[in-house]
Design goal:
338 residues, alpha+beta, Phosphorylase Kinase, domain 1, Transferase(Phosphotransferase), domain 1, 5-stranded antiparallel β-sheet, two-stranded antiparallel ribbon, 8 helices, 34% helix, globular, binds adenosine-5'-triphosphate, binds magnesium ion
Length: 338
Amino acid sequence: MRHDFFAEDSEEFEPVTFVKMKPDARERSRLRKASHTKPTKKTSYESSSAVQRWLKQQAYDVEPEAEQRQESSFKPMFLAGRRDSPWILSSLTPLYDQKLITDIIYEASSGKEATVFCCAAHVDTGQELLAAKIYRPRMFRSLRNDAVYRYSRVQRDEEGQAEHGNSRRGSAATRKSEKSRAAQVASWIEYEYLTQRIMYEHGADVPRPFAHIGNTVLMEYVGSRDQSAPRLSDVVLDVEEAQELFDCIMRNIELALVHGRIHGDLSEYNILYWEGKVSLIDFAQAVDPYHNSDVFSLFARDIDRICRYFSLYGVACDPNALARSIWTRHMGPLPELL
Ligand SMILES: Nc1ncnc2c1ncn2[C@@H]1O[C@H](COP(=O)(O)OP(=O)(O)OP(=O)(O)O)[C@@H](O)[C@H]1O
Ligand SMILES: [Mg+2]
């Protein structure tokens, strides 16, 4: 795939600058250049050919004939000049080709593991905006310590066989090849997407999920053309609305449990607040409560964090009692009482 419109990002391009530099700095720079042979070109993990190949393969799994296409017409101006444009483009082009998005409007957030973009939605989706959460391929390298392994989420190996990675050392496949780790990340993102779908279909307050292709999850955008919805951690609530929002979040936690999920990383940082309503996001750490009794501690931690946040607004709650009562109502006796 050619990216002519990114030509200005080329490493070979030496811009002429009129910035005043200190004389020593200029001399040091000249000597450095003279004493070294051509500096090694910086390459990011994301742009390595193996990662690009993997992204392409993942992206077109659902539509193999698309791989044969010469070039997509997706050329978002937003990406011009960005170093990371090749991997963002390989992640979003399939969404464009499948008539889900038409353009990238802005970057809503960039974290360690994923970047979220506000995209213009294709008219067929019935939305104006969509959020594309793109996981960085470099995540493939660092799965070993992930909650996936600590809390027994079922993983699929290369052949699609279920693995139960509940060992602290990580499952056997984690120690295998890069390829099998990539397969695990794919199943990990699929699980996040599936969790969000289950939640949405049962009426939870989560952004409506639209698609999962490769390393990208596409969902309803919470916010506007100008700004993404702030997180609960970023806003000051009215005391009067706090109790209602708290109850709403507890309902969502209970709903998730009833349908076989614990968020696992719930806090004011993973809840968006927009037009007086909350949306729970980021199901990357979600786990199945039926899979391992250890997960009660995760469940209790989610509730504890929400209680702490809302106690600042005078909402009275006993996180321990609340966690125990919701758990026993749906899951039976508490693990330590078994
Ligand atoms: N559906 C959405 N609509 C609008 N903004 C969103 C949406 N999903 C995510 N965001 C924005 O992207 C941010 C990060 O999303 P998320 O929490 O899912 O990813 P993350 O990998 O945990 O990133 P971080 O480490 O920054 O929390 C959110 O805090 C929010 O600002
Ligand atoms: Mg998050």
